[in-house]
Amino acid sequence: MPPELHSRPRLAPGCRLGENSQQRVLLMPERALRLNGPSLEIVERCDGQHTVEQIVRELQKIYSQAAPQKVEQDILGYLALLEERRALDFEL
User: Fold this and answer.
1) Which fold is adopted by the domain 8-85?
2) pTM, to two decimals
3) Residue 17: exposure state from Cβ atoms within 10 A (0-12, 13-18, ≥19)
């Protein structure tokens, strides 16, 4: 289920951004996920301050050549995936 637009994603306890061989990674218990491009842009904004809607709007500006609805769908899908992997928590 996609996250609510007014919720505020933040990294779950035990998860943090790190670097590995000059690449940004999302460090999670027992695993790591390489981040680049849009995935890095999304995770960097999961600070508990930005709402999902703010993240979507900011990335729609950055990736203005892509269809806004496609950008929103991709972000919501990625956030839902990270929540499923227990890398994100959402506050209302």
Assistant:
1) Arc Repressor Mutant, subunit A (1.10.10)
2) 0.92
3) middle
